[in-house]
Design brief:
alpha/beta; two-stranded parallel ribbon; 9 helices; 7 strands; 48% helix
């Protein structure tokens, strides 16, 4: 769990997640155009979260599933979590002040998945009965069941094998370059998560049934 920066050499060729390799290929193409004289710089956002997430996004879905009592096991890795509004401003700052061919990490706070779930529980005023950081084989078994259910129900699996493969890395990063060269800032992630929770609650998207009420017992 060591924060990396833009100079880190890519070393995940073996990771079987097509999304990652597609994003990297697009970035390499953009940087190649920059080397040919075109004005292009690259921004690398962290995992995005925030209110008004109608999608929901990847992290919005994770938060919502936790608040609905549908996440019982978490991987042992971690992520860099950033407010989507700060990252949107970071894009504009990069367009105004970025150097062609240069990469800028637009991140926020580095949290393990367990730390993230603890913060989500605190905001909702609940205390899960059991929330272990589970070993990879156990989570892979749940992913296998999720894929079987998805095949039968014609829906997206959750968790998927990609979630399991990515969840055991620490995606920790430093935004120091963007701070110094672009003037990028990121608000405390606790503020972002609280506003996200308030938005979901106000939009009546968080409801608990009998099992969820038992699982997510009141913290007090």
């Amino acid at each position: 769990p060591v924060p990396l920066d833009e100079e880190q050499v890519f070393n995940l060729e073996h990771l079987r997640v097509p999304y990652i390799h597609a994003k990297r290929a697009a970035e390499q193409l953009a940087i190649e155009f920059a080397r040919q004289g075109r004005w292009i710089c690259v921004v690398n956002p962290g995992y995005l979260v925030g209110p008004e997430d109608y999608g929901p996004s990847v992290m919005g879905r994770f938060c919502l599933r936790f608040w609905k009592g549908r996440i019982w096991l978490v991987p042992r890795g971690g992520i860099n979590l950033a407010d989507v509004r700060d990252v949107a401003k970071g894009h504009l700052l990069a367009a105004e002040h970025g150097q062609p061919g240069r990469r800028y990490i637009l991140g926020g706070s580095n949290l393990s998945f367990l730390e993230l779930c603890q913060q989500l529980a605190h905001l909702a005023g609940v205390r899960p009965r059991y929330m272990p950081a589970c070993p990879k084989p156990l989570l892979a078994m749940f992913a296998l069941l999720a894929h079987a259910r998805a095949w039968w129900c014609k829906r997206e699996p959750y968790p998927s094998f990609a979630h399991v493969r990515m969840g055991y890395y620490y995606w920790y990063y430093s935004s120091l370059r963007a701070i110094e060269e672009l003037g990028y800032t990121s608000r405390p992630i606790t503020t972002t998560l609280r506003e996200t929770w308030d938005w979901y609650r106000q939009n009546n998207t968080v409801r608990w049934h009998a099992f969820q009420r038992w699982w997510l017992r009141p913290a007090a």
